[in-house]
Design goal:
heterodimer; A: 77 residues; mainly alpha; 0% strand; B: 179 residues; alpha+beta; PH-domain like; 2 domains; four-stranded antiparallel beta sheet; four-stranded mixed beta sheet; 5 helices; 8 strands; 44% helix; elongated
């Protein structure tokens, strides 16, 4: 029973479906990033440390997105 | 940002101790290992040989790490924007409860009556953090600086500023302090 259900689920996963999920995540990420950047620039007290954290934030997010892109590119339909 | 009055200077900016941020994000750090654990579990049950396992693992891991990364920065923003600013004339308490809830209150240095320092617990003792309670004159609410590093030094800074303010204005100060 379990492998049958898993296979059914796996059949739904296509590169296009992964791409749609990726796009939705990118949109959510863009909105949250905008909120965070707004708070940092509006209320931040130390521009130097804010700049370092901003760079770290986007670097880490870039690594996460690279993992997702690699997953989509390696996916064989 | 804080708008300072003429002749006012920022003496100190005090945030909560780094331990507070560490304690709040320790769970996130542990959660970051979930994808690795899941891959190991899938491998044990022989599911890692199914087609497209690696691409899916990469995709889901990327999504998981991104979620943790964003949550960490939301927690850090709350930590970073929660600050007490001690100026030559005021103590400003800026409290960031969450991204869309923020309150700012202040008390004038000359209104301060008592300052007490509290250090509770083993970690607070060894990591040198604690609370500073600032009691003000009148009906205004008291200030509590929670889990700040080196509370004794902060108390000394406030006293010093109070004495300088009193010296400049010629008003004698009468207060007591507990440590």
């Amino acid at each position: 029973m379990f492998p049958f259900q898993l296979n059914d689920f796996l059949r739904l996963i296509t590169p296009n479906a992964l791409g749609a999920v990726f796009a939705a995540l990118a949109a959510i990420f863009a909105f949250i990033s905008w909120m965070l950047l707004y708070h940092w620039s509006r209320y931040g007290y130390n521009p130097a440390s804010i700049g370092r954290m901003r760079a770290l934030y986007f670097w880490g997010a870039g690594v996460c997105f690279a993992l997702m892109v690699a997953g989509i590119l390696l996916f064989e339909s | 940002m804080i708008s300072l009055q003429p002749g006012e200077t920022v003496v100190a900016e005090v945030r909560r101790h780094w331990y507070v941020l560490f304690a709040e994000t320790l769970g996130l750090f542990i959660l970051a290992f979930v994808p690795i654990l899941m891959i190991a579990v899938f491998d044990v049950f022989g599911l890692s040989t199914m087609p497209n396992f690696l691409p899916l693992a990469l995709f889901v891991s990327g999504w998981w790490f991104l979620a943790i990364w964003i949550i960490f920065f939301i927690v850090w923003t709350d930590y970073y924007l929660d600050v007490w600013v001690i100026t030559s004339k005021r103590i400003i308490d800026i409290e960031q409860r969450n991204l869309f809830s923020r309150s700012t209150s202040e008390c004038r240095i000359e209104k301060i009556q008592d300052i007490s320092v509290e250090v509770h617990g083993l970690l607070a003792t060894f990591l040198h953090f604690g609370n500073v309670r600032v009691q003000t004159a009148g009906e205004s609410e008291n200030f509590i600086l929670l889990n700040i590093p080196d509370p004794q030094a902060v108390k000394d800074i406030i006293f010093k500023e109070q004495e300088e303010t009193a010296h400049l204005s010629g008003i004698p100060i009468a207060h007591s302090s507990g440590a």
